[in-house]
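Possible regression after last week's pipeline update?

I re-ran a chain I had predicted before the update to compare outputs. Posting the input and the new output here so someone can diff against the archived version. Not blocking, just want to make sure nothing changed silently.
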Amino acid sequence: MTETFAPAVDSAVDPSYDPRTGAQHGSVSHTAPEQVAEILRRAQGAASQLADTSPATRQGWLTTIAESLRTHEDELVQLAGEETGLGADRLRGELAKCATSTDFYGAVAAEGSYLGASTEVIGGDSTLSRWNIPLGPVAVFGASNFPFGFGVIGHDVASALGAGCPVIVKAHPAHPRLSMRLAELVSNALNRAGAPAGSYALVVGFDAGLQLVDASEVTAVAFTGSQGGGMALVQRAAARGVPVFAEMGTVNPVFVTTDAAADTAGIAAGFVGSFTLGAGQFCTKPGLLFAPAGAGIFEEVLARLSQAPRAPLLTAGIACGYRAGVAQLIEAADVAGNVTPTVVTGETPTDPADGYVAAPQAVLVRLEDLHPGSRLLGECFGPVALVCEYEDTGAALDALTRLQPSLVASVFTSGPGDPESAEVVRRLLGQVGRVALNAWPTGVATSWSMQHGGPWPATSRSDATSVGAGALGRFVRPVAVQNAEPAHLSDALHPDNPWRVPRRIDGRLTLPTL
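New output (post-update):
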């Protein structure tokens, strides 16, 4: 059984702020070093038990967690609203998706193909068997912008548990009270479901997070957040050779083909809706739109922005970074001689006591100013985006290759016969993890085919995804045994197939019987 959840006590705290007002409402104590050490010891002790537990049993644990999230929906949405300012509708939707994705990762585990189980005769009576085993304890660093989707529970935590790894989560300081309550619910759900003690725990505080990265017990780190934070973890963990799966994000491009620009109003409306969604605090936010010159898309974007509401950003630090970033973007465009818009909904407050409200903005830039080293190619977290009008399609496509690689790109075409679309997609596939055709990039489906990752610096591991069935693959590694007897094998390759998973026997895929 899992240990009873108990908050840690220490002199340092993470204060809890309301982004709508800037007022503080309580705080959460940091986890003391000796408590972190005990959590690590318990996780290490649970690792072998989780690895030996059938995927179907782990599915039951995740189902119990999902049910608990749904049961406590009203309480969690209210608490999340107090600490994020994201609004009840957005938070209810995110919580519902979190519960659904938690169920999904359990189903992926039970299906079993992530195990890669294979056995064959390699000559004479010699055999070779190969399968994937869990890495061991995983440290997860929760994100500020998705308190349910990438927090104390969410994609990283659920996929690691599904893969058979104990999880230790570091709470994000943007929502410490919510993190504590979520951790309590997850811990209690695992306890009821019969998971081993040490399967899951929460730590709070910057130093506690560093202690996790440095700990010999931790075998992998999952992180969602800023490029600076992610790369700091990558460099720190490199001393031990520990993989860090950091999803950091950059500027996600949108390309409108010549023929597609006929839908000026629709594209402008979709663009504004996408880059202001959640106050622009999505890693998949479209940050740079390429549009044919003369189509009037930029003017239509400005008209739409005049109706867009201001919204609070998550933290005082993010609000300050947004103000500075927008000023830098406008200055960079001014230096290039452009006419730069435009705060069209009022000034962004500068006093944290007034909350962290931000006004959405758009900046017009030139194609020739999109070069390596330009501030115009750096991410600005919040509801701001660039529009670049192009005269020549070839020159615009060349500019695409000068962008930093990113998580996702959108391409808007006139339909299946669009003469430009194939080349645009070809160029983008070398730059991003996912291309969305005639769809905005902000939506991420939890599915078997989803790829939510991308080349560096969008992520630290371009071979990984943090959403979808492939997410379990981050937390396992392959092993092989030659001339194994049944007692030497995982149940995934036992002759009786007690886990009822697909295997490849002598090169032929064999599915479990119903």
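Follow-up from reviewer: compared with the archived run. Residues 88-111 form the longest helix (24 residues). Marking as no regression found.
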